[in-house]
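quick q for whoever's on today - can somebody do inverse folding on this one?? i tried earlier but teh output was garbage lol. tokens:
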């Protein structure tokens, strides 16, 4: 059995059985299996590709098996999903995909399952991807459900994306956004300013002044020092929007309120070191707080990392800049965390938006006069973005003013960013995978009057 397929299958099982995160588990699984660079790339494509297109494959499997996927043994179902991905979305020969997938089912030792899997996969292989999409679409009850099946996004996420794009007058971009979510993102790196130089082998990213673009291959040697880090360009822009929104006065106090896993914290630390500011960090989850300390280790700046509830962290206040990178649905990072689209539910949003509002309110109250808070989510869902900002500004009427975040980003970006003015005229910025090649980062800057 091919080791790349085995690693991909084991990751799928961990995601569905133990709520594991593929982006955290896969690199470790690849290393433990000792995969070559070629096989590591194959395992990555198989695991991520299967998770991204899971909704489409489940519909195809149900039609081919003539039973609902809920009636199929979970171990067998994950193997069938992996096989369907190889048959419908890769150049792997169908006979090889069937043979290797049946081997995975045999390894799972589910009684009577090998013959069933073999029959289902051979049935899938008889028709083209287009024919399967047409067949499954006929069973859809609405246009959104048909789009859900073809794009492999839950209907509620499609509708949330449409509303968010509509707030910019760009609903015609929905298909491009859904397509971008199902494409493998390029690896981008952040070169910590003042501490490292961009390697000549790496090209600059189009927007972030500290960004670099990997030419492919394993980036581990490049990032070994910790001063060059794997980080999405949107995350870089979110941190830099806070540090470069206005000139830094020596002695400023900065805080990263929701710091885990620490990528933005390290960039803030480098910026603080360069400008004579101090930085504190907070992350309530102990394991994630450990990752923050690890991310900060290469930066020669003493940063205290607390592990408190962010809503209660800042009794004394007195901060000049605060980053609130709030817990969210993560709908802006479905390219990198494909399982999130199946794991999150619309019922999650109200609880998250209430927490986001509380965190931003606490941060705003902890600012010094003239201080800035950056509210950031990796989600374009309007309930997690503009609604939260509007609620806090309304609750603190006369105490907060919105900074034109789009102008700030244009001022620090290497090339112009396509950032349309929202219909409500607010000053926030929304980055998009399809338009900017970044995660879907929402960034709003607020200043205490």
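ok took a stab at it. sequence:
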């Amino acid at each position: 059995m091919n080791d790349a397929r085995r690693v991909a299958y084991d990751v799928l099982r961990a995601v569905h059985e133990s709520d594991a995160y593929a982006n955290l588990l896969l690199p470790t699984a690849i290393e433990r299996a000792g995969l070559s660079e070629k096989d590591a790339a194959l395992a990555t494509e198989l695991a991520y590709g299967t998770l991204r297109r899971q909704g489409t494959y489940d519909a195809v499997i149900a039609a081919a098996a003539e039973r609902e996927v809920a009636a199929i043994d979970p171990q067998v179902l994950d193997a069938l999903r992996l096989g369907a991905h190889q048959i419908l979305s890769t150049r792997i020969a169908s006979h090889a995909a069937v043979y290797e997938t049946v081997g995975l089912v045999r390894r799972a030792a589910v009684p009577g399952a090998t013959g069933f899997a073999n029959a289902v996969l051979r049935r899938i292989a008889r028709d083209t991807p287009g024919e399967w999409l047409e067949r499954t679409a006929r069973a859809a009850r609405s246009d959104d459900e048909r789009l859900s099946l073809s794009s492999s996004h839950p209907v509620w996420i499609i509708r949330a994306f449409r509303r968010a794009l509509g707030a910019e007058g760009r609903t015609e971009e929905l298909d491009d956004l859904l397509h971008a979510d199902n494409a493998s993102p390029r690896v981008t790196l952040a070169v910590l300013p003042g501490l490292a130089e961009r390697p000549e082998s790496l090209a600059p990213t189009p927007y972030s002044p500290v960004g670099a673009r990997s030419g492919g291959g394993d980036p581990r040697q490049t990032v070994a020092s910790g001063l060059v880090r794997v980080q999405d360009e949107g995350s870089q822009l979110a941190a830099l929007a806070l540090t470069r929104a206005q000139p830094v006065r020596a002695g400023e106090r900065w805080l990263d309120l929701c710091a885990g896993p620490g990528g933005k914290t390290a960039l803030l630390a480098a910026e603080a070191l360069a400008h004579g500011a101090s930085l504190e960090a907070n992350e309530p989850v102990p394991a994630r707080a450990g990752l923050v300390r690890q991310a900060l280790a290469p930066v020669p700046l003493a940063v205290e990392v607390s592990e408190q509830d962010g809503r209660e962290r800042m009794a004394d206040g007195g901060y000049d800049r605060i980053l609130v990178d709030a817990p969210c649905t993560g709908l802006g990072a479905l390219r990198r965390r494909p399982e999130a689209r199946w794991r999150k539910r619309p019922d999650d949003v109200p609880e998250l938006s209430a927490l986001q509002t509380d965190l931003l309110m606490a941060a705003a109250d902890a600012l010094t006069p003239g201080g800035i808070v950056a509210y950031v989510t990796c989600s374009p869902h309007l309930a997690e973005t503009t609604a939260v900002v509007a609620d806090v500004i309304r609750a603190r009427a006369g105490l907060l003013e919105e900074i034109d975040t789009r102008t700030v980003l244009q001022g620090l970006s290497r090339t112009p960013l396509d950032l349309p003015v929202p219909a409500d005229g607010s000053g926030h910025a929304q980055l998009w995978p399809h338009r900017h090649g970044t995660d879907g980062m929402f960034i709003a800057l607020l200043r205490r009057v």
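fwiw The mean pLDDT is 95. also The chain is about 50% helix and 10% strand. so keep that in mind when u check it
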